[in-house]
Amino acid sequence: MSVETKVESTYPGALKAADFAEKVQAALAGAGYGDENTLVATSLCCDEVNRELEKSLTSIYGDNFSMGGLAGFAFGGVTSFGAMAHHIPTGGNCAILYGPHVGIDADGVVGKINRRGREASGPCCGSACAAAGYVKGVMGGSDKSTLPGDFLDAQQYWVGCELLKHGERLEKADEEMVELPLALFDCQNEVMHKIVSAASKETHGGKIALIGGIQINTPAGVSEYFLPKVFEIIDTDGNLVESLLPALS
């Protein structure tokens, strides 16, 4: 089975990065967005394999504002959204691309990726896999982690805490690594909507496009994919204007 076939059978509806960007551009244009006055923000994992998807949008809209940290969570929070909103070109709007990622390696293994210069494939997303291990331990009776006293590994603590909410879901999943990014997306989608609800007025009339889903990393020479789960236009008061998700089908 090819990697492409594995992606499409595991995550039906996933789009190749270039096709995804083209569809997003067309849908946003229909919603009144212009290429020159749109600011793209991303909340994707800091892993280097995740830049291809960003580039597919920045090639259209210019450099992105980054809100994301480990596993793709928007650790920049309300403050980063407010800062980003103040960078939107006059009379323009913003679009936020967010979500976790998962690798599929050359052998079709979900949860692993072939990295440049390394002989064997390895975990992807590493932070997500570590959090899944933590959750499995807690579900098996191990103690929960305590809130860190400093920021040295605070992000990973919160990734684990958020994922723990879906502990039973992961236990019951037929394939844990397939379900893992879907569970993380539900966590991140809730967080992103809370951030937007708290800070939407900072756009001062500009619209907010939320584009959420699962980023799927693949071996070199194979297109990266994105599984869209949310594509919404939110107004400056935090109200849902319309869902554009059908445009990505």
How would you describe what is shown here?
The structure is a single chain. With about 250 residues, the protein is α/β, with parallel strands linked by helices. Helices cover about 40% and strands about 20% of the residues. The protein is built from eight helices and ten strands. Strands 1, 2, 3, 4, 5, 8, 9 and 10 form an eight-stranded mixed sheet that branches. The protein has a two-stranded antiparallel ribbon with strand order 6-7. β2, α3 (about 50-60) and β3 form a beta-alpha-beta unit. α2 (about 15-30) packs parallel to α3, α4 (about 75-85) packs across α8 and α5 (about 125-140) crosses α6 (about 155-165). The longest helix is centred in the last third of the chain and has 24 residues, at about 175-200. The two termini are about 25 Å apart. The mean pLDDT is about 95.
Strand content: 15-25%
The dominant shape is globular
Distance between the termini: 24 Å
What are the segments in which pLDDT stays under 50 over at least 5 consecutive residues? none
User: If you compute it from the alpha carbons, what radius of gyration comes out, rounded to the nearest whole angstrom?
Assistant: 18 Å
Q: What integer is the average pLDDT?
A: 97
Helical stretch tally: 8
Question: Portion of residues in helices?
Answer: 25-40%
Strand element count: 10
Backbone structural class: alpha/beta
Largest sheet descriptor: 8 strands, mixed
The ordered H/E elements are HEHEHEHEEEEHHHHEEE
